[in-house]
Target: t-SNARE
Amino acid sequence: MAQQYSNGGYSQVGGYGNNNPYDERGDDRQTGRYNNFAQGRYDEQSDVEMQPYNGAGVDPNAILNDCREVDRSLDQINSQLDNLERAFKQSISRPDQSTNEVTSLSSQVMTGYRALVTRVKNIKSKPESGSPRNAPQVGRVDRRLKQTINRYQTMEADFRRDSQAAAERQYRIVKPEATEAEVREACENPDTPIFQQALLSSDRRGQAQSSLRNVKERHEAIQKIERQMVELAQLFTDLDQIVTEQEPMVMNIEQKGEEVHENVLKGNEEIGGAIVKARSRNRKKWWCLLIVILIIIIIAVVVGVVVAINKKN
Model:
């Protein structure tokens, strides 16, 4: 079974007809459709106009809009998982029922996962996805996607276990005297001659034929789901690889930011020192001016006194 993911958070999934959720040529940039979606999820950005950035030609809310679309797609996947869970239960409770519905629904879910993983890879590959404004929403949808994958993996494990038990019960009905090892081998490998031998030796040949068909169908459905889970695990390996590849770039950006911050601090210190020196120079100029004025006053007083004395003489 594919590796389980413990963290929970891509392009729209589900939906049919003209509203193809996997066709990105549609109206997935019309933000007005999401004004009332998931009340409270994006309140922190509610005061921002969802309009393209004038002059720059780039929508500053593109990442947040993509996250909204991923949320809507995850809602549809969860609805599909509800339907698939019901199909699993019906398949177990009614051994004579075809597994076509299980196969179809599981294929729909996987198609949705492929689209979401691709969408989130695109989101996380954009440098602005790591900005303080966008990072919380990107991380949240990433975790939520992984939660839905955990749910699918748990459902698949339960279906495989229950299908195995149902197949063993059917085989014992056809061949009550079978040993535990024989039952296990027949159910794990329905294409082996064991079931055919049971058909020939059983007086319930019609029921044995039906049991063989049902066991084979369930076995094929389980094998397909397991292949899908392996594929999904690989998709997430690729998704995590994007994060690993981006780490040097992020570290370089952070280093450059720190350098800019240090340069700003040094610049502020130098400006502060220049201001202090300028004020000191200004004070010295005023003191020099005051001294010159005092000297002029003293000279004027001395000249006045001398002139007065000379007149008296």
Summary: Residues 31-246 form a domain with the Methane Monooxygenase Hydroxylase; Chain G, domain 1 fold (CATH 1.20.58.70). The radius of gyration is 39 Å. The first helix runs from residue 62 to 93.
